[in-house]
Specification:
2 copies of one chain form a homodimer.
Chain A (H helix, E strand, L loop, with lengths): L19 H15 L6 H7 L14 H24 L5 H18 L1 H10 L7 H25 L8 H13 L1 H4 L8 H15 L5
Chain A binds a DNA duplex (30 and 30 nucleotides) through loops.
Chain lengths: 205, 205
DNA sequence: CATACTAGCTAACGCTCATAAGTTTGCCGT
DNA sequence: ACGGCAAACTTATGAGCGTTAGCTAGTATG
């Protein structure tokens, strides 16, 4: 049946190599699709064309996969936020830039976004608290931009917290519907959402 | 130890009755907290102070619990939408009313909202397709209101679909952070979000 | 007072899960 | 040519899952 003998010990030769990164990538796809608890390790193995125990040559546990995915994603979010607002002074410019990168990320990294939003709570302590804190930090930073805009009069919104939640979460939801082959590019969607954000805070130049 | 003999056969007398509804309520709490796949039937039983198999006197399967929760919630969403827009003509009034009830629901029915958003995909076909369709119907109806507002000139937004997604999903996210004992009531939050919605579509009276 | 129903219980089943242990195989550097 | 390592394999383990079966004790009905 099989064109080459694919069973038995020894490294694979005819197949794309299984590596720590390829395991993570397969987990990324499956966790995003069926959730962490809804995904069996055996399904990750099957996606890579390998028996289940072979995975443990490239990972230490299922939980660690989830933690790595969440940690990396939150690290990236923070780095992008910092890079986006650096060098900008006006709150409107900062908010536009921050929402743009955040919204774009949720179009370009859908799987990561879905997992972080759906399955972070499946992490064991103390990782859970650490990750929650990192998420809060990002929200707080966004809120601070809005607060500064309210103070200097360029924004006009009752409560900075409510607005920052609304803005961030509407961006998050892009991951739910965006399609790479859809009618709009990630950049276009990001620009549009950055505009939405400025309207929510009632930006007036 | 136990003040009354609580073991052995026979119905409980000293405890609040276990009913189909109380099972659903316990499932609601646990599914919302840990997710459908993350919740064991034994945990639902424990929450009710009962052994696991006893639950099956009040339900037929774990999956049916999820399906009931999702179906009821989506039914309610539709009914509320219809009731909210009925009798209103202006797109702005309709959008405000529709967002108000949708946002309020996500504050007052947090558990249902979290489950629908997180675990609908765990439903087996054909229920999954049915529920997805019902969700799409609600989005389409909201989009139609926005489109009418664009046509009659009271709204000014590039794409009705993008706007309706953003508005609905920012409302959904209320379920993530709202606390009943927080600084704002559900009504206040709903009013604020209805305002956000009108800003997103650039409503000008 | 007998009967039937309700709603608990214990026990057990068949599965699947994540993970461990130990074995086999092919390639690479010497 | 060969020894060792990397990475696959098979097999196994113990725990937990959802669910069924069969039993028992109170409660309501006649």
């Amino acid at each position: 049946m099989a064109p080459t003998d694919v069973r038995g010990g020894g490294p694979r030769t005819q197949r794309t190599a299984v590596t720590a990164e390829s395991v993570l990538d397969a987990a990324l796809t499956l966790f995003a699709e069926r959730g962490y608890h809804g995904t069996a390790v055996s399904q990750i193995a099957a996606a890579l064309g390998v028996r289940t125990p072979s995975l443990y040559n490239h990972m230490t546990s299922k939980q660690e996969l989830l933690e790595t995915i969440v940690r990396r994603t939150l690290d990236d979010v923070h780095a992008e936020f910092d890079a986006a607002v650096a060098g900008l002074d006006a709150p409107a410019d900062q908010l536009r830039a921050a929402v743009r990168v955040y919204a774009r990320r949720h179009a370009t990294h859908r799987r990561q976004a879905l997992i972080v939003n759906r399955d972070t709570t499946s992490l064991p302590e103390p990782a859970l608290s650490r990750m929650r804190q990192r998420r809060r930090d990002h929200e707080t930073a966004t809120r601070a931009v809005i607060s500064r805009g309210i103070e200097d009069g360029s924004f006009s919104v009752g409560n900075a917290g409510l607005a920052s939640f609304a803005i961030l979460e509407m961006s998050v939801s892009i991951a739910r519907w965006f399609r790479e082959d859809g009618p709009r590019t990630a950049e276009q969607v990001a620009d549009e959402y950055a505009e939405f954000a400025l309207r929510v805070v009632r930006y007036r130049p």
